[in-house]
TrEMBL record:
GO biological process: transmembrane transport
UniProt family annotation: Belongs to the binding-protein-dependent transport system permease family.
Membrane topology note: Multi-pass membrane protein
Annotated InterPro entries: MetI-like, MetI-like_sf
PROSITE patterns: ABC_TM1
CC annotations in GO: plasma membrane
Keyword Lipoprotein appears in the UniProt entry: no
Keywords: Cell membrane, Membrane, Transmembrane, Transmembrane helix, Transport
Source organism phylogeny: Bacteria, Bacillati, Bacillota, Clostridia, Lachnospirales
Organism (species): Fusicatenibacter faecihominis
Protein name: Carbohydrate ABC transporter permease
Cellular localization per UniProt: Cell membrane
Length: 277
């Protein structure tokens, strides 16, 4: 047993963290419970927390009401392509900024990071015009190309991790006659896997939950992603809340699986960004 006394500040800190955790979990619990309620139970005053009875048929009805299978496939393969391409481009750019000393590389890196301060709403109309001129509107390429080719946060994350690696590894490879691509793919990339894993998870979650850009660029039901398809449960004058909540619970299953199984990589990757160059 630890003989040290527990400080009051520690107790207050844990109480505050516990309260914050409860507040953040409440919306999820409300959605989960509402997904097995009838429409009448949802609008009961005062509201009932535990459904009586549980309406489990909301889940099969939600799946049957809309083509969720196709939407799941669309969301998954779009997210997978974006993750793979962004991991490659961001890691290569991060290596270039961290280890390859070229003229003006610090200035270019700062300007690159400055793009993170530009709200996405500012670039929506120019991006829409570009996709229209390229005749990509209504296709998944309008979602894949812009997201795959540019991610300032990813470059920053990869650069921070790569800069923490000892220069002696690269110098030894150069002495052995290795080229820059060989150094990157055979030495640097295996060492930055924790950071790449964390970044890949962030990209996947962001793409899976993306609603605004599919809403702007897609116009056919067969091309819709899961978040966009959920919007169909909302009508002009009424919303089928039980089916909407059930569909929402179905849509967050991949997100929960990723978070549960990759918590360590997420925390490790974020912690690494604070390492000194």
């Amino acid at each position: 047993m630890n003989s040290k006394k527990i400080k009051p500040s520690t107790v207050l800190l844990y109480l505050a963290l516990s309260l914050g955790a409860v507040i953040m979990v409440l919306p999820f619990l409300w959605t989960a419970l509402s997904s097995v309620k009838s429409m009448g139970q949802i609008f009961t005053v005062p509201p009932t927390i535990i459904p009586r009875p549980f309406v489990w048929k909301n889940y099969p009805e939600s799946l049957a009401a809309l083509p969720f299978g196709r939407a799941y496939f669309n969301s998954f393969y779009i997210a997978a392509i974006v993750v793979v391409v962004q991991l490659l481009t961001a890691s290569m750019a991060g290596y270039a900024f961290a280890k390859l000393k070229f003229k003006g590389h610090n200035v270019i890196f700062v300007l690159f990071l400055a793009t993170m301060m530009i709200p996405s709403q500012v670039t929506m109309i120019p991006l829409f015009i570009i996709m229209k001129n390229l005749k990509l509107l209504g296709t998944h390429w309008s979602l894949i190309l812009p997201a795959s080719l540019f991610n300032a946060f990813g470059v920053f994350l990869m650069r921070q991790f790569t800069a923490s690696l000892p220069d002696e590894l690269e110098e030894a490879a150069i002495i052995d006659g290795a080229s820059v691509p060989q150094i990157f793919f055979k030495i640097i990339m295996p060492l930055i896997k924790p950071s790449m894993a964390a970044f890949g998870i962030f990209v996947f979650l962001g793409q899976w939950n993306n609603f605004m850009y599919p809403l702007i660029f897609l116009n056919k039901t067969e091309t819709f992603t899961v978040p966009l398809l959920l919007n169909f449960f909302k009508g002009n004058y009424a919303t089928n809340y039980p089916l909407l909540m059930a569909g929402t619970m179905i849509s967050i299953v991949p997100v929960l699986v990723v978070y549960i199984f990759f918590q360590k990589q997420i925390i490790q990757g974020i912690a690494i960004t604070g390492m000194k160059n």
